[in-house]
Design brief:
This protein is mostly beta strands and about 200 residues long. It is about 10% helix and about 45% strand. The strands form three sheets. It has a five-stranded mixed beta barrel. A four-stranded antiparallel beta sheet has the order 1-4-3-2. Strand 2 and strand 3 form a beta hairpin. Pfam families: RNA_pol_Rbc25 (PF08292), SHS2_Rpb7-N (PF03876).
Length: about 200
Amino acid sequence: MFYLSLIEHTLRLPPHLLNTPLDEALKMELEKLFLDKVIANLGLCISVYDIRSIKGGFIFPGDGASTYTVEFRLIVFRPFVGEIILAKLKESDANGLRLSLGFFDDIYIPVHLLPSPNHFELYPNSRTQGRWIWEYGEEENQFVIDGADQIKFRVHSVIYPSIPVEQPQNSKPFAPMVITGSIDCDGLGPVSWWEEAEVLEE
């Protein structure tokens, strides 16, 4: 889920940071540039882990700042296909579920990757939001996905959509990294489903 990625980047160090120790100043500038950003095919940048090398320190004519080439390691969030992750329910509508890890919210479980057979039930006074119900066996065996506890899902795919030139009005904000998950397998879904099953077996 989390990886260390080695990156080389050339950056300009503003003059007001010249009285700060060099490695601290460069780390501050790197964090401004990379933290909470998604790099395509690399993942979501979580933290600057360390700085491996610093080169340069050139001051170009007419510029009061110095320029450095820095080699550093980033902690990035990049789940692999098939990985099992725990998340919380953020939204539930007729298209499926949207989950959140707290620091990352673009996780979707589409209808065809939900446990089957199932049905969607709208909440009172809501036109879009509701809850999904897994119809397992007898009528009384209905398992609800309502966000009461954590949901265990398997990563089905991780994509990095290209930035659209124009977005339709009232569309969802652009997501630079989207995770599609599945809960259509034994042991997946709300953790309480399987805790109850273990109690019944005992």
